[in-house]
Amino acid sequence: MFAFLDTPFDRDHPVYTRANAGEILPDPLTPLAWSVIGPGFEEGFRISFCDDFSLLPRPGHDTPYRLVGRMATRFHLNLTAMRLAGDRLPGTSADVVDAQYFGEAATTGLPDHKPHADDRRFRLKAPSSMGRTLAGIGRRVERDRATIDALGDELDELGGDTEASDLVWMIRRVAATFGSTLGTHVTARALTSPILEQATNALQRAGIDDEDALRYVSAIPDLESAKPSRALADIGRTIPRGSALADLVAEGSSEAIATSTLDGAAGLHARLTQFLDDFGHRGVGEFDPTTTAWEQSPDDVVRLLARLHDAPPPEPTTPDIDPGRVARPLVAAARSAMARAERTKDNCMRATNLLRRLLGRLQDHVGDAVGDGSFAMCTLDELESWAHGAGLPDEAELRRRRVEFDEAAAVGVAEWSDGTLRMASDDPSPASDENTVDGIAGSPGVAEGRARVLVDPYGEFDEGDVVVATMTDTGWTPLFLAAAAVITDVGGVLSHATIVARDLGIPAVVNTKTATSRIRDGDRVRVDGGSGVVTVLERA
Question: What is the pLDDT of residue 22?
Fold first, then answer.
């Protein structure tokens, strides 16, 4: 199933995967979205794998491959290239890469990885590159933030009469910054995995069990990705349960709060305004600049707040243990690495939200030049040409793209494809025990509750329910404060869901692959975040 702007498969690097990529960009990407951020994703992965770690050659005329792709409108990673990088990175391998992406299913049906003639040359280069990168990564993170903040200041100063051509020029600049910032993020994530493994192994050698080791290493004060949840919970604690103010919040309207004369409404409005100033760049599907963040949809924040009023703060879950002289510096390094990786993601989201704001202004310029919903079917190149006096694609072409996009987006794509696109029906069937769902142990602990299978964090949900979702990002995490546990189809030990769940002290099982299809809304489930097993206790 091909869609306009989809990436052709590469003959020499033919295996692409949706695993893990689905956590970054879970939804179908319109031509506009892919034309804006696709080049940045490609450049970001090149910066990390080709420059920072020296594991792969820079794609060019002699090596015309891609590290990322869009197949059937979905974001994919080039698994052939990732396996090559895994074989060349000290301490890991192609098999380890497979296990990180697919868990225990890594051996079922995947084409074999073939060693490359250049493996030895890159293995010799990688350690020194990795050392230099590790030494400078902290400074890069702060440089990225400063660059994005400066671009944000420029955007704030743009007048309402700014020409469309100037907006496109600004979009190009921000998109380039997004690419370099993403490179820092990919590298920071890659550096975190081995450091986390070293720390947890050292704690286990000191006699600390797996669950306490993971909890202890994950105790990170002021974690970037948990800040919005904690800040919103702090606001919620100012809203008495059962009060008129709580009823106002339940309406889900930020405008109603802003205009209300109820006692406490003015203060609540001020706190929500500050929240949006601090965290408005985050939201559901936040890597895609054509979605809405909290800044553009403050009612979403109010809807989340309605679940958190008068809620007690989460109990600290850090084990009271002595890590020992050997493990202590490794734990400190692992905590620092995880905090840094979350800050790099926040940098990416700040850049993405600048793109979102600019695209909104550009759409206002385009106005009636394209029909309803057709703006997203244009590419950035086409919009740039239009801004300089050329015409946009005609209505028939835009309708054709929309039909093609909708048809491709409706297709279930398999976790991996080899040279041609595979369908989800080609993936191995789940385990025969219909009441057990296996995944990766993400956050320790055991909890029971009613499963709520959600496509977004705004569906029906009561305190003590269990979140069941394809994936979660920052836009979901305020829900975690009311949840008993979290279950996702995709993700890993360093995914957003697991890091925040550990910080908040609730169990999480991730990378189940099939939880949203095998668990029914309303089922009663037991979530064992230490073993990575979900058990259906009672069917709805």
Answer: 83
